[in-house]
Design a protein that fits this description.
The chain contains 6 helices and 17 strands. By secondary structure, the protein is an alpha+beta fold. The strands form 4 sheets. A 7-stranded mixed β-sheet has the order 3-4-2-1-17-16-12, covered by helices on one side. Strands 5-8-9-10-15-11 form a 6-stranded mixed β-sheet. A two-stranded antiparallel ribbon has the order 6-7. The radius of gyration is 20 Å and the shape is globular.
């Protein structure tokens, strides 16, 4: 049985336009809510201590949604793990209406992110148990949830639902972004430390619930490169013995010409600092258990082809083929 599995950060797949309530903030009209910070509006609307961060109150533009949908339909994967989705209703609508029913099975559990972005799974095959590890903590900070979003554990079943084909662990680790109001050096150190704690926690959890010979994949937006120090506790965990499935990935499609091209095709994220050359990094990972890695037959990075900045997302999706 050939199975195609991938991961794609959809870059703020929101459905909301604006909140419908009135606000007493000076100079703010109802129609202007879309450009006001979530943490300001939600706090005043709910009249209690709820703070959501970010300014992305408007839905993703139709053009960008179409680009995302076209890319996903072109890949035609059996299972696609995604990041940065607002909620389950948004995902269901996107899968049914904009992906033309390509995926009849979806799984999303609301996580920890203050911007309301979640990880999720879309599948042509039936989905079994879904487990959230969002309440997990790290020994170094036992009073704080370690995962910025979640570590979502999902079973993919055979068509007759009698067998678990494989288990997915979907990640969206701590971003490298440091607010401009904070010390950039200290902020970077803190973000890296947080990402390392997440990698350590994910490794410990997966090792505790998976047998050494089990078929499982650890994938998603790791917000760091495969060889980075923060990712090492997961990538090189002695019990898991994970294999980087994208080491020999092939590029599908060709990005438009740019003045600062990448040095290698092994990248999924492009960032262009103001006045500096673009930075290309492989932030989206697929790691396989040894038993699953033995069944891998291909690996691909599906390239943006319309815009250098990204076709609907600043990430490009990655996928693999396995023969079960």
């Amino acid at each position: 049985m050939r199975l195609k599995i991938g991961t794609f950060n959809l870059n703020n797949l929101f459905s909301r336009y604006k909140f419908s309530h009135e606000t007493d903030e000076p100079g703010l009209k109802a129609e202007a809510v879309a450009v006001t910070k979530i943490e300001t509006i939600v706090h005043k609307a709910a009249r209690k201590e709820i703070t959501y961060k970010g300014i992305a109150l408007t839905r993703k533009e139709p053009e960008d949604r179409k680009l995302l949908a076209d890319r996903i339909k072109d890949m035609d994967l059996d299972v696609l793990c995604v990041q940065e989705v607002e909620d389950i209703d948004t995902l269901r609508h996107f899968a049914a209406a904009e992906l033309d029913g390509l995926y009849s099975h979806v799984m999303l559990i609301e996580g920890n992110d203050p911007r309301l972005i979640d990880v999720a799974v879309m599948s042509k095959l039936p989905i079994g148990a879904g487990v959230t590890w969002q309440t997990s903590v790290h020994p170094a900070k036992p009073t704080e949830r370690v995962f910025s979003r979640d570590l979502l554990q999902v079973q993919i079943l055979s068509t007759d639902r009698k067998h678990v084909l494989l288990t997915l662990f979907v990640n969206h680790l701590k971003s490298k972004f440091v607010p401009y109001t904070e010390d950039q050096t200290l902020g970077t150190i803190a973000a890296n430390d947080h990402r390392k704690r997440q990698a350590e926690s994910a490794a410990a959890i997966i090792a505790s619930v998976m047998r050494p010979d089990a078929a499982f994949a650890v994938l998603g937006d790791f917000n760091d490169t495969p060889e980075s120090a923060p990712i090492a506790p997961l990538a090189h965990h002695p019990e898991l013995r994970l294999v980087n499935a994208l080491t020999n990935a092939k590029e599908v499609g060709e990005m438009p010409e740019t003045k600062s091209p990448p040095a290698t095709h092994l990248w999924t994220h492009r960032f262009k600092p103001s006045g500096k050359p673009a930075v290309y990094e492989l932030l989206d990972h697929i790691w396989l258990s040894p038993s699953l890695a033995n069944k891998q037959t291909g690996a691909f990075i599906h390239r943006r082809t319309h815009r250098v900045s990204g076709d609907g997302s600043d990430h490009d999706p990655a996928s693999i083929e396995i023969n079960l």
